[in-house]
Amino acid sequence: MSADPTPFPREAQAYLRAIFQYSPECLKIVGADGILLDMNPAGLRMLEADSAAQVLQRPIHLVVAEEDRAAMQDLHDRVMRGADGMLEFSIVGLKGTRRRLETRATPLRDASGAIIAVLGITRDITDRKRAEQEAREAALRLRVAVEASNIGLWDWDLNRNEVRTLNIWGQLGYAGGEVADGFDAWRDHLHPDDRERAVSEVRDYLAHPNGGYEAQFRMRHKDGGYRDILAKGSLLRDEAGAPARLVGSHVDLTERRAAEERIRESNRQLRELSRQLAEARERERRLLSTELHDLVGQNLTALSIDLGLIEVELSVESRRQVGNRLREARALLESTIAAVRTMITDLRPVVLDEYGLLAALKSHAKAVEQRSGLAVAVVGDEGGERLPADVEIALFRIAQEALTNIVKHARASRAWITLARGHGDVRLTVADDGVGFDPANIVYPDTQSHLGLLAMQERTEAFGGRLSIDSTPGGGTRVHVNLPGHA
Fold first, then answer.
1. What is the spatial distance between Cα 389 and Cα 382, in angstroms, rounded to a whole number?
2. pTM check: above 0.85
3. 10-124 sits in which CATH class?
4. pLDDT in tens, 240-255
5. Could you state, in order of their start, the residue ranges of all structural domains in the chain?
6. Backbone angles phi, psi at 383, to 5 degrees
7. Mind listing the pLDDT tens digit for each residue in 91-104?
């Protein structure tokens, strides 16, 4: 050593020198006046000294960061009075690197017991402090994220029966520390109607773990209400394969379920409104059909009869002069009467009211076939009692719209309508052998051509049903309608 403050035997000094020289931690001897008397290579590296001469015989406080110099002086003074001490401080190396160090200091005494110097053992804790800071920041980010998303985390040590949580009780309105973590606290906050089941589920899972743990239950909030909780967890095993920890999360489903219920109620109201609108349209159709039949249809029929009488009463000479015009007028009148009758049938098919849905579909299919040349086959068995009137008219309108789309767009030669009932459901299928299309490309508000599909969808949903379309380019189209609970 460059200084020899202790009267150790030469052999002991050799051993001490070896320890001093090769210790991975900084070893230093500081004189009573604060002058650095000796330092091992590990310490020189911490100070970024290329040689001992750069730092020995200099005040030790010169390398201590300014904000920690007073604390270092206080430690030195206490040790010189005979106390051991410990200090965490920062240094700035000779090359400008800042480090965080931790030192333990003890007095060195001479043979008479007098304190003559301070022995310091110092380790570099820069990486540890950085890791601790990063861990704190990560924990803070996790806490903020967990609290912002209203998720609770839990970690259950099965061997010690200790539970640590994060935001579990915050979800239930409690501040930190108001409720002690633990299985008993969790159980006591369960809804009385859920408690036995929830406890049995977690016990059964631990007895026979298979996959992940998942359960739903209600927990009591600080305000006295209850929250719907979804719990999910994973089992961690020890080196021997035995269950060691169960870790997982609590997700508060209360608001989501309330929102889902609001959406369901809105959908129910929309379906009811759609049904009422459909019924209103049908009433208007029925009224218009009646008006056309009673007023326009009867007047046109009367006019046809009058023209016939006029033709009979004309003289031969008059008939010769205006006969062709009369015949043309009667032909135009007959075609107008036929068009009005078709319009009346389309507005409100009488056969639907009198004979039921299947008969109305067959009648309409025959009319479509006559007008367009599209061959339409109708098969099915209504069986039993007739469907409710509003269901019959809805299914008829859907089939009517589907056939209209086939005639307009499908370039098909054949179409099929199938009506089936069973297990409380009624099912309608309208298919064709046309050019088909890609259903994924349908955007209902996009063009007028898609409004018919939207109308079919709305009619189906108004009765709580489901409409699906199967089609491929070149492979025809199939429209499926299923109305549950209406058969």
1. 13
2. no
3. alpha beta
4. 888 899 999 999 998 8
5. 10-124, 143-252, 270-348, 356-487
6. 60, 145
7. 999 999 999 999 99
